[in-house]
Structure formats: C-alpha cells, structure tokens
Design a protein that fits this description.
The chain is an alpha/beta fold and 286 residues long. Helices cover 39% and strands 17% of the residues. The protein folds into two domains: 3-203, Vaccinia Virus protein VP39 (Rossmann fold, 3-Layer(aba) Sandwich), CATH 3.40.50; 213-276, rRNA adenine dimethylase, C-terminal domain (Helicase, Ruva Protein, domain 3). The protein has eleven helices and nine strands.
Length: 286
C-alpha cells in the first residue's frame, strides 16, 4: 500500500479497527492524513542524506514508507505493541526497515554521529523527555526532523529570549534549529487541539557556552522558572543573596533586567561567575 493511501481517513479508521487500536491521547496517537505533510517529510529528510534513520512513533507506517527509500537503514520504534506487530507484517517486504516494539527513550543509538538522523511526529506529553534524550545522545546523532506542537517549536526557535523556554535553550545550546512548515490540526486523524510545526535540529560540534553544563543550566532553569521576575529576584530563589550580588557584579550584568533577555554569551558569563563565587559558610535565606 503506497504511503499516500494511508492518508485516507477511511483507510486509517479501518486499519486501526483491524489492529484493535482506539487512538490514545496519552500516547499522542494522531495519524497524518495530509499528503503534503508526507511530502514535507520526504523533502526535509532527502536533503540531509542520512545513512540511518531512527523513526519515533511510526504509527501506521505512512512516514516509514516515505523514509524507506531515503536511507540504507530505517529503524521504526513503536511503543504500542498492536501497531508494532501490524507494521512488522506490513513492512516485511522493505528490507531496509526494522520495526522495534519499545519505548524510544530506551533506544541505544549506534555510535555513528555523521549518519544517524531521528525523524518523527512527537506527542506533546513526551516532547521534553525526547528532546532531552536526543541532546544527551548528540554525539551519536547528526540531527532530527521532527513534527511538534507549534507553540513548543516556536519557543525553541526563539530561545534564548523573552518568548523562549528553558527547553529551547537546551536545544539551541547544542544545535542549529530551523522551522520548516506549519501543519494544521486538520492534517491528523483524530485532530489534536493544536497546530504543529515541522522543524529540524542539526547538532553542533560543541556547545554554545564554555562553562560547566550543570552550572549553566542551573542558571537557565532559575531564569525561565521565574520569567516575570527581575534577574536578581529570579536568582535569589535558588541562590543565597550574597552570592547573587557577587555573580551579577562579576558577570557585569544589571540585576534589574529580565533574565530571559540574556543571550548565550551573557548566560555563560553568569554561569562562569557562579562557578567562581565564594559561598558563605552558613547558608543565607534568599
């Protein structure tokens, strides 16, 4: 069955019924029923020339069939055993495709940085864990082509910044991000409550900051966890008052600004100052 046939709502409903699957919100089971979205995946993945594609959440296999000619190896990871079994039968004639029944967060990426790309439509409920997983394994992955909730993707693209997010800073710290196409909620069956965005992340050789990652992201979480507060007040929620004053002075930053306005260079200076700070012998209340 050609991938475009799987964008027919009647076909999708019939296949789900035959597999005993009632689409689960918890699993983010919204199936692509817009051929133009498959074309967008095909164009984006064709451009990167992957040697291995790891697809997260293949569902009924529409995107999987688009990916099969684009790389020598396609690994499709499906958490729903009923769909995984169906895919193993349906795609048995595609020698490049391997279907795994497991949680994508348990997948161990082969050590092949230049050749592996991750592809998939990622449910909102697991967006942060999936992106954190990819960043953690970035030395084994060249990048990803993902379909995410539109608001999340736009926040990532705008990070760091007033409309960004801590998750976005994490992604941008290690990759180049490009938004490719807006995808309306009507492109799925059943339709989710929000629109989506197709985007790419290409991992960098190194991070956009030079200090300790633990210290850097302590600062980032403090800032974006209290985004309506001035920088000084946000830092006092997690650090002693005396340390806050010291690191602001050392980083040459005004404590009255909003922390989410800081760029990577300023965030890095702040984290570096925190690493060098002299802590009081007794903890002080913020």
């Amino acid at each position: 069955m050609p991938p475009e046939a799987l964008t027919d709502r009647g076909v999708v409903r019939r296949m789900l019924h035959e597999s005993g699957v009632h689409p689960s919100k918890r699993l983010g089971q919204n199936f692509i029923v817009e051929p133009a979205v498959l074309d967008a995946f095909r164009a984006a993945v064709s451009e990167v020339k992957a040697r291995r594609i790891v697809e997260i959440g293949p569902g009924l296999g529409a995107v999987t069939q688009v990916l099969a000619p684009l790389a020598p190896e396609v690994v499709a990871i499906e958490i729903d055993g009923r769909l995984a079994n169906m895919l193993q039968r349906r795609l048995a004639g595609l020698p490049s495709v391997t279907v795994l029944h497991q949680d994508a967060l348990d997948y161990v990426f082969p050590d092949d940085h230049d050749g592996t790309w991750v592809v998939g439509s990622i449910p909102y409920s697991i967006t942060a864990p999936i992106l954190q997983h990819l960043v953690t394994h970035r030395r084994s992955i060249a990048g990803a082509v993902l379909l995410l909730q539109r608001e999340v993707a736009e926040k990532i693209a705008a990070s760091p910044g007033p409309t960004g997010s801590a998750l976005g800073v994490l992604v941008q710290a290690y990759s180049d991000v490009e938004l490719l196409r807006r995808v309306s909620r009507g492109s799925f069956y059943p339709s989710p409550d929000v629109d989506s965005t197709l985007w790419t992340m290409r991992f960098l050789e190194g991070a956009r900051f030079a200090c300790d990652p633990g210290t850097f992201f302590t600062i980032v979480r403090a800032i974006y966890g209290a985004r309506r507060k001035m920088l000084r007040a946000a830092l006092r929620l997690v650090l002693p008052r005396a340390v806050v004053g010291e690191i602001l002075d050392a980083a040459r930053l005004d404590g009255s600004i909003r922390g989410e306005t800081l760029d990577f260079a300023e965030l890095s200076r702040l984290a570096d100052a925190l690493e060098r700070a002299e802590w009081p012998t007794e903890s002080t209340n913020p």
